[in-house]
Fold:
Amino acid sequence: MAGQTNTNVKRHLIDPAPRFRDQRNPVPAVFLDRDGVINEEVHYLADVADLKLIARAGDAIHRLNAAGIPVIVVTNQSGVARGYLDEDQLLVIHKALSTLLGDHNASVQGIYYSPYHPDGVGDYARQSDCRKPGAGMLHAAAQDFAISLRESVLVGDRINDIRAGHTAGTRTIMVKTGHGARETTLPEAAEADFIADDLSAAVDHILSEMF
Ligand SMILES: [Mg+2]
Structure:
């Protein structure tokens, strides 16, 4: 989207294949929050030993892959700004996540992360449009790949995920896993277009009702 480029957007493990990159033919994508959606929420995941897939999440992503839908992870990682882990350790976690998904024949086209937070240290201490509820990561992915945001769906466990999706123009699904156990009970959860028990149920809804 012209004028929306955010050079601060960070990326890990971007799929180099030319699929999904035909700018003449933008396609719908599924954007996934990471913690509490794909893997179990632990407070500031910093140790790869604490990385554990949520039940059926790997198979859910595999079903999106099989349907030919690009899958993009968009994750706030303020633990970097707060000094709980560095970006090299975050990459180790993302490689391990990719391996765990691979065990289910599942893959994602890229992981976009925001290491920033206003209360962070050094260069990471900043407001950033690529920190959700900002839409910077979604706009960057839509440019890197050829994604039609208004045809896309974002799945998240927090209100701020839903707001990022809507700011970018996507439809949204809130899941009850992770912080969703509490946040889906809040009045703001009504902002989501649909509420699902977990990622697997969200993908059921996406494949039957949204695409
Ligand atoms: Mg989350």
Observations:
- Helices lie at 57-66, 78-81, 87-102, 136-144, 159-168, 180-183, 199-210.
- Strands lie at 10-12, 30-32, 71-76, 110-114, 153-156, 171-175, 194-196.
- Residues 1-5 have pLDDT under 50 and may be disordered.
- The radius of gyration is 16 Å.
